[in-house]
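User: quick one, sequence for these tokens?
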């Protein structure tokens, strides 16, 4: 045992559903609902079909979202993890530093379906994983991500392992072993953003996190200090050590309510710019009068969403200039279909891309953008910051339900989507998650 794993398991290893504050439980339900919508819509993406063709032939008890196929828990976690991130429309966390739900929930669901667990078990295990991965993510700091590591995967694997450890009833030593195994499974590079391999990352994290917990339950061994000890994850992929102070600052708070949700079907770092330009358009700026755009962003995000000449839908999701060009040509950035290959390759959209100029400012938050629209009548300016979670959870829940309905209905139909959405909204009251997952097939 190390101080880190001991501290984390002491705080969350015996968590119960009744100990969750209302805000935590509410946002956890929001996260689950949002992931299911994203996964159902993502199940129609080519990458999901390729993964099912390659990995989904095995017989097992676990559902492959949006398909009639079933698989063993590990393959289900892998495929569902990638499927849920196929559209890059799932939630994010500034505390964890990545997409928080997608590497975690598929592992929980696979184990829950295998064991016939309750909705309360799923919600509790999800929160355990979320809180553990958030503390590891915040303590390793931004240097890890800036080096090129994809935090959603490299940190998410610890969340999946922690949630699996809770569901399997591991003791503190078993949890420490699972964390040690997970540390050697952490992978994922930002170099693959804009390709099918980015969604593969959380699928791998879900699969390997679940495997880590299952192996630990069988008595497999690992170095309990593999996260933060000598020649550990922190030394190899971080700055040398974890920042314990960052974990301490979360001692009396919860990370789950800090989750941010996406209402545009593109990289979250493009959203502030979309919202800023959108506010100007809503304020009366004529689309036909826009001659050019200047965007000012934190320079670090250019390694994430700075694709300069997007020609595919996937590339457009990770392109500040591409999303702006779509927006000013009245393409709905909230629609999944807007990030197929067709819209970004329209002649008018492609012609506008060179007219979007990017400037940088180190003082800006990574989730903030300044926009200046240039036209014949002069320039108009707007700022936006999407780094703050909603304070109106009822309104957030309503928006997420509308998003879920729009994503799920085309895949499973009105009746199943309605029934699934209703049940996910009250997931903690459901006696057997297998009944819910049947609605996704």
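Assistant:
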């Amino acid at each position: 045992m190390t101080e880190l794993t001991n501290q984390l398991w002491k705080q969350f290893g015996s968590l119960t559903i009744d100990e969750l504050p209302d805000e935590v439980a509410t946002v956890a339900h929001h996260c689950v609902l949002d992931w299911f919508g994203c996964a159902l819509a993502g199940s129609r993406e080519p990458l999901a079909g390729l993964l099912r063709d390659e990995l989904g032939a095995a017989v097992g008890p676990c559902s492959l979202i949006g398909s009639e196929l079933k698989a063993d828990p590990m393959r289900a976690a892998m495929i569902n993890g990638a499927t849920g991130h196929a559209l890059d429309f799932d939630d994010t966390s500034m505390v964890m530093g990545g997409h928080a739900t997608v590497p975690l929930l598929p592992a929980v669901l696979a184990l829950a379906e295998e064991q016939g667990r309750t909705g309360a078990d799923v919600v509790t295990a999800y929160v355990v994983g979320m809180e553990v991965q958030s503390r590891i993510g915040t303590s390793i700091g931004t240097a890890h991500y800036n080096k090129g590591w994809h935090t959603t995967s490299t940190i998410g694997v610890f969340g999946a392992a922690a949630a699996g450890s809770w569901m399997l009833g591991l003791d503190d030593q078993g949890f420490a072993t699972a964390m040690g195994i997970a540390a050697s499974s952490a992978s994922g590079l930002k170099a693959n953003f804009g390709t099918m391999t980015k969604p593969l990352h959380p699928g791998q994290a879900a699969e390997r996190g679940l495997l880590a917990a299952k192996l630990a339950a069988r008595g497999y061994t690992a170095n309990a200090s593999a996260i933060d000890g000598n020649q550990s994850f922190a030394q190899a992929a971080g700055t040398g050590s974890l920042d314990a102070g960052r974990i301490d600052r979360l001692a009396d708070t919860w990370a789950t309510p800090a989750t941010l949700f996406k209402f545009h079907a593109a990289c979250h770092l493009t959203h502030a710019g979309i919202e800023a330009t959108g506010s100007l358009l809503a304020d009366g700026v004529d689309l036909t009068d826009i001659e050019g755009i200047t965007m000012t962003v934190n320079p670090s995000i250019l390694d994430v969403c700075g694709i300069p000449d997007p020609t595919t839908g996937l590339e457009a999701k990770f392109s500040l200039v591409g999303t702006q060009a779509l927006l000013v040509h009245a393409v709905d950035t909230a629609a999944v279909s807007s990030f197929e290959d067709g819209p970004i390759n329209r002649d008018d959209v492609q012609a506008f891309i060179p007219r979007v100029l990017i400037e940088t400012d180190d003082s800006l938050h990574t989730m903030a953008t300044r926009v200046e629209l240039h036209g014949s009548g002069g320039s108009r300016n707007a700022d936006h910051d999407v780094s703050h979670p909603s304070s109106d959870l009822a309104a957030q829940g309503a928006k997420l339900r509308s998003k879920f309905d729009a994503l799920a209905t085309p895949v499973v139909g009105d009746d199943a989507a309605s029934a699934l959405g209703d049940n996910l909204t009250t997931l903690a009251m459901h006696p057997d998650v297998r009944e819910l997952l049947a609605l996704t097939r």
